[in-house]
Specification:
The structure is a single chain. By secondary structure, the protein is mainly α. It has one domain (18-85). 80% of the residues lie in helices and 4% in strands. The protein has a two-stranded antiparallel ribbon with strand order 1-2. Strand 1 and strand 2 form a beta hairpin. Helix 1 (2-32) runs antiparallel to helix 3 (47-88). The longest helix has 42 residues, at 47-88.
């Protein structure tokens, strides 16, 4: 049971962090900080404009792959920890 609680705590923390990155890239860079980012050039266009049109989509796709990679790793680790915990747990006493 301890493994499941730790797994979900890590999973929720990871999801929250990725959502914050998504919000900063999508909302912050595309709307809130666009004037400051437009001072930077990305090719021939202002960086704030590029983030609003293309960059936030790329960040979102990258976050999807990162989430899948990290979640897969966490799933494998939790399965190994659960198997180890079951192997070390005492067997129930036979009441027969």
């Amino acid at each position: 049971m301890h493994v499941a609680k730790a797994y979900w705590r890590r999973q929720l923390r990871r999801t929250g962090l990725l959502l914050v990155v998504w919000a900063v890239a999508g909302f912050g860079c595309s709307i809130l900080f666009v004037e400051q980012l437009n001072r930077i050039s990305f090719g021939d266009m202002p960086f704030g404009f590029w983030m609003a049109q293309q960059g936030s989509i790329y960040v979102f796709i990258l976050l999807i792959f990162l989430y899948a990679l990290l979640s897969g790793r966490a799933d494998r680790q939790a399965t190994l920890e659960a198997d180890t915990e079951e192997d070390t747990a005492p067997l129930p006493a036979n009441e027969g």
